[in-house]
């Protein structure tokens, strides 16, 4: 799976995507990350990417053309490993917007199994000129009912959740855990500790050795 990330701030991804499971997925080429900065696609010698909104209103809006050009470049980059002629590239474009359709784990599974390339368009300021949606056929996606400063966190959420669905990204145990969208309560050592005069103990059933009862307890604690 290749993610093409159209962002003014590619460096914001370094920290999260280069560690742990995702860092390993990149190293093992299970996922590829291709960054495109809309500033590199500006005509303006000052590389200005935003302008005032038509009709007035607060803030600035990201211009359409630099983003459309970045998207066009992402959509023509040839595969590193060539696909057989008969196989068509399956590409999806997402544009992040707080007003978009809510992203779910079902989407993550669907994207992982039905697409080869996902283009993620990240907004900043007061958002992106709507003509980008018309030109690229992007789907508007939101990651929740709140407003973020930019789409970069949303991109990382989508990359993380989609990558987990790709075969070989998770270890065997993690894959089993993936079957559950929400996990039961979990505990680890020590069996008990004290904090501010109160004792915190692991539920007795978990140290009882009764596997059937433990499973029942886990199902109940979901
Ligand atoms: N009023 C603007 C709008 O509705 O698009 C707010 C823009 S917000 C400050 C800047 C960018 O952050 C958006 O263009 C979008 O890409 C991203 N963003 C903000 N909240 C988001 C959310 N809940 N889900 C996905 N992306 C979000």
What ligands does this structure carry?
Answer: S-adenosylmethionine
Number of helices: 8
**How many independent structural domains?**
2
Q: Which class do the helix and strand fractions yield?
A: alpha/beta
Task: Write up this protein.
- With 222 residues, the protein is α/β, with parallel strands linked by helices.
- The protein has two domains: 2-173, SPOUT methyltransferase, trefoil knot domain (Alpha/beta knot, 3-Layer(aba) Sandwich); 181-220.
- Helices cover 32% and strands 19% of the residues.
- The longest helix has 13 residues, at 64-76.
- The mean pLDDT is 92.
- The site of S-adenosylmethionine has 20 residues, from β5.
Summarize the structure.
The protein has helices at residues 14-17, 20-27, 64-76, 105-114, 131-136, 152-163, 172-178, 211-220, and strands at 2-6, 32-36, 50-51, 61-62, 91-102, 117-121, 139-142, 192-195, 198-201.
List keywords for this structure.
222 residues, alpha/beta, Alpha/beta knot, 2 domains, five-stranded parallel sheet, two-stranded antiparallel sheet, 8 helices, 32% helix, binds S-adenosylmethionine
List the helices and strands and how they pair.
Blueprint: E1 2-6, H1 14-17, H2 20-27, E2 32-36, E3 50-51, E4 61-62, H3 64-76, E5 91-102, H4 105-114, E6 117-121, H5 131-136, E7 139-142, H6 152-163, H7 172-178, E8 192-195, E9 198-201, H8 211-220
Parallel strand pairs: 1-2, 1-6, 5-6, 5-7
Antiparallel strand pairs: 3-4, 8-9
Helix pairs in contact: 4-6
The chain binds S-adenosylmethionine (SAM).
């Amino acid at each position: 799976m290749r993610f093409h990330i159209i962002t003014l701030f590619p460096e914001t991804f370094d920290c999260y995507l280069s560690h742990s499971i995702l860092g390993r997925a990149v190293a093992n080429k299970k996922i590829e990350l291709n960054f495109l900065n809309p500033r590199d696609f500006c005509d303006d010698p000052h590389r200005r990417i935003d302008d005032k909104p038509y009709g007035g209103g607060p803030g600035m809006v990201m211009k359409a053309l630099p983003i459309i050009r970045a998207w066009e470049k992402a959509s023509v980059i040839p595969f590193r490993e060539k696909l057989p002629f008969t196989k068509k590239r399956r590409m999806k474009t997402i544009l992040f917007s707080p007003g978009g359709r809510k992203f779910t784990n079902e989407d993550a599974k669907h994207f992982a199994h039905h697409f080869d390339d996902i283009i993620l368009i990240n907004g900043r300021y007061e958002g992106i000129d709507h003509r980008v949606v018309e030109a690229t056929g992007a789907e508007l996606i939101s990651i929740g009912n709140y407003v973020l400063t930019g789409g970069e966190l949303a991109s990382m959420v989508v990359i993380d959740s989609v990558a987990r669905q790709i075969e070989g990204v998770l270890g065997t145990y993690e894959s089993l855990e993936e079957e559950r969208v929400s996990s039961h309560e979990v505990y680890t050592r020590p069996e008990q500790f004290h904090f501010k005069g109160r004792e915190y103990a692991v539920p007795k059933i978990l140290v009882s050795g009764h596997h059937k009862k433990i499973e029942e307890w886990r199902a109940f604690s979901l």
